[in-house]
Amino acid sequence: MPSLNDILLVPGNRPKVVADCGKLIEEEVDSKGGLTGLAVKAAFAVVKAVKPGFVAEAVDHMLDDFVNRLEPFWADAQAKNEPIGALLNARAGQVSDALLTISDERAAKSTNNTLKKAYEKLRPTGKKHVEAAVPRIGRLIAKYASATPA
């Protein structure tokens, strides 16, 4: 079975993966409710207003890192002949930690104070939000894996 890198980052798939990740993020933000949801939606609106196209650009810049962090989960699922979605769902906390490490590092290096402040406001609940996105992440990976010859 090909690596996750070979599935998601090949030139023909990468732009589609970036677009699908953008949709995934929009769906996750739209699904948030309550006071936390209002904060998430407001921060997301600020980010999109400050820099239109930021989400796609950020996804594209971070996609290699995300794939590298997800690769061990992919390899484990393949070794166990287990669907990637089921494995990711069972390890949602670990997946969240792996992915948030990347955005934490990027946010720390950012020179855009508005984006930094928005991230810092949301980060305390970030793990919960990323864990909630894990099923969608699993479905996204499965979509491309099923279209890739073994």
Structure description:
With 150 residues, the chain is an all-alpha fold. It has one domain (4-146). Helix content is 81%, strand content 0%. It is built from eight helices and no strands. It has helices at residues 4-8, 14-31, 34-50, 54-79, 84-90, 92-109, 113-122, 126-146. Helix 3 packs antiparallel against helix 7 and helix 6 (92-109) packs across helix 8 (126-146). It starts with a helix and ends with a helix. The model has no long low-confidence stretch (mean pLDDT 91).
- Spatial separation of the terminal alpha carbons: 5 Å
Number of strands: 0
Class by alpha and beta content: mainly alpha
Number of domains: 1
User: Overall mean pLDDT score?
Assistant: 91
Question: What is the CA-based Rg, rounded?
Answer: 15 Å
Share of residues in strands = under 5%
Outline, from the CA principal axes? Answer: globular
The percent range for helix content is over 70%
Largest sheet: none
Give start-end ranges of low-pLDDT stretches: none
Order of helices and strands: HHHHHHHH
DSSP summary: helix tally: 8
Features:
150 residues; mainly alpha; 8 helices
Give a concise summary.
The protein is an all-alpha fold. 81% of the residues lie in helices and 0% in strands.
Please outline the helices and strands.
Blueprint: H1 4-8, H2 14-31, H3 34-50, H4 54-79, H5 84-90, H6 92-109, H7 113-122, H8 126-146
Helix pairs in contact: 2-4, 2-8, 3-7, 4-6, 5-8, 6-8
